[in-house]
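Run log, item B.
One chain of 156 residues. Sequence copied directly from the ordering sheet:
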Amino acid sequence: MTRFLTAAVFSLALTAAASAQTAQTPAPANARGARMIERLCGAMKPAQAWGRYAERLSDRLNLDQKQKDLLRAWQEARIKAREDSRTAQCSPKPDLATFQGRLDYRQKRIESQLATFKATRAPLEAFYAGLNDKQKASWDEFRDRRGDRRRNRRDN
């Protein structure tokens, strides 16, 4: 029985030491998270892809001027929210060298995603409400196919 207790205490001590070391182990510089932070916090790319998406959507739905204005308001809110999110996540630049730093960054990222969603929801709802039934059906189909393509890319 004494051997069992000694072995259990020794095992527990080794596990605790390994856990403490793992918690403070720095992430390698080429780790996926470090590369993501460099892309996110580096030079911001212009929102050209979003502009192309808006143009294709406008053409596909045959929007009138009022609807184009609502689309532009949604687009501008999305771009501003994205910039605000990036600023929130990168100021100060996250420290991914420790476990605690990675957890703090994950929390900051989730909070900024929620803020982005809240900032863009009202303009998106206004745009969608401004569409007629035929345009809504076309947009829903367009979004579904876009989502299917994304899922297929992930699955492959």
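Observations after the first pass:
- The two ends are 54 Å apart (CA to CA).
- The chain has six helices and no strands.
Flagged for discussion on Thursday.
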